[in-house]
């Protein structure tokens, strides 16, 4: 029941009632929920308040509006979660060991470009140097987890980099050249991504991601790549080991 004296906003109370019905099994995927007009009458609230409750569930992907038919409970995707330690440099394959499905790399773009000035500074290379520029999507099965945009050295190490290595494992490619990765330095923040990232990560317009600007270094401390990494926060648990 709705408690109009509660400090909890009424639209949130309606959301909680609907979620309890879904969790309890009285509403199942494919079932319609009451119309906003019906809920407004049922709970003695305005239609705008009822609509606000439904809007929240739509944004979460729990229900969907179907024009001319009503609003229905969605099929819920498998709850894939992986733990990402923010204080360690791990490959996506290493992070995905908690899941039964392997990481799939999908190369979206690869070309040689003139490095932006900021990238030249971060990689310690001369202005206007040529570098690799790539975009990759990392998936578990068909679920997109990570979108990354990377500038990577060409000379003296990686002139033969190809689509095959990037769709397989970039770090195995490095190891085949006798190179090891020392680690990376990251600047991390939450942000609302642009249209391209939203598209590839299958995000809603107002859904945030964890963004990391990462500079990765080889064992001899040479920076070899600069990446903008966007993590689909729906599928990650972020951890940090803190000492005193």
From TrEMBL:
Residues 8-76 form the HTH gntR-type domain. This is GntR family transcriptional regulator, mannosyl-D-glycerate transport/metabolism system repressor. The keyword Transcription applies. CDD domains: WHTH_GntR (cd07377). GO terms for biological process: negative regulation of DNA-templated transcription. GO terms for molecular function: DNA binding; DNA-binding transcription factor activity. PANTHER family: MANNOSYL-D-GLYCERATE TRANSPORT/METABOLISM SYSTEM REPRESSOR MNGR-RELATED (PTHR44846), MANNOSYL-D-GLYCERATE TRANSPORT_METABOLISM SYSTEM REPRESSOR MNGR-RELATED (PTHR44846:SF1). SMART domains: HTH_GNTR, UTRA. InterPro entries: Bact_HTH_transcr_reg, Chorismate_lyase_/UTRA_dom_sf, Tscrpt_reg_HTH_GntR, UTRA, WH-like_DNA-bd_sf, WH_DNA-bd_sf. The keyword Transcription regulation applies. Keywords: DNA-binding, Transcription, Transcription regulation.
